[in-house]
Amino acid sequence: MEERCTCGxxxxxxxxxxxxxxxxxxxxxxxxxxxQESPPAPTAPPPIAPAAPxxxxxxxxxxRAVLITMAVAALSLVILYLALLLLxxxxxxxxxxxxxxxxxxxxxxxxxxxTKGGGAFLGLMTGLWLFLVVAICLAIFSLEVSSPxxxxxxxxxxxxxxxxxxxxxxxxxxxxxNELLSGVRxxxxxxxxxxxISAAFGGMLAARTSPRRRPSA
Length: 217
Description:
The chain is an all-alpha fold. The protein contains 8 helices and 2 strands.
């Protein structure tokens, strides 16, 4: 009986392929050709790691950090004024507390982990605002004292303050305004370091005492 291909062509004896359509006739050839033509099994895409929560860089470009440190500095100025009149030795403690409060408040507002460096920078920003206001006030004070009318106003005002009225050295400075202005200028640089370093230390202390988040299960 003649062997025929599915296309209808008559196949010679022991033919492996059809001479008309080229179809394989042996089972091994058919299996191999089917394996070559079958598409590869799709591979599963690699798992996508969850994105880490974005953190905002602490600095003067961070509007939230700027507003918080300015607000804390404004409140601290009132407390510092009262401390200078009532108990001057606690001024460094108040400066440290200003940096501490700024870092704590920023941490609560952002709900982000706060590093020691970030806390110190928040305290430094608070100290810079404080020093800027103090420097402006001293500049205005220097301009007023330079005029005779300003000197008379200063003498009248200082006579009502016990710290100046009972202090011979302070009274002597009021009599010589040039020495007073020179002392104010010389005090700016150490004042800058005292204010900024104290506030930065307070901010770093706030970051160190912040509770760490527990890893989620």
